């Protein structure tokens, strides 16, 4: 069983990534077309989702 501090670390990682995703969303004014025209944002979101997935799998 995982230690409480380890679980908390993963949850905080997930929270920080969600905050980053919200910043990307706000940067594009919640406009998917604008977002889809910026490959750097797309790659950032892909990477953030991978990090979340890794954290969840470790939980």
**Average pLDDT figure:** 95
Gyration radius (Cα, Å) is 14 Å
Tell me the series of helices and strands, N- to C-terminal. Answer: HHH
Sheet-strand content, in percent, reads under 5%
How would you characterize the overall build of this protein?
With 59 residues, this protein is an all-alpha fold. The protein has three helices and no strands. Helix 1 packs antiparallel against helix 3. The mean pLDDT is 95.
Task: Provide keyphrases for this structure.
59 residues; mainly alpha; 3 helices; 0% strand
Write the layout of secondary structure elements.
Blueprint: H1 4-27, H2 32-36, H3 39-58
Helix pairs in contact: 1-3
In summary, what is this structure?
This protein is an all-alpha fold and 59 residues long. Helices cover 83% and strands 0% of the residues.
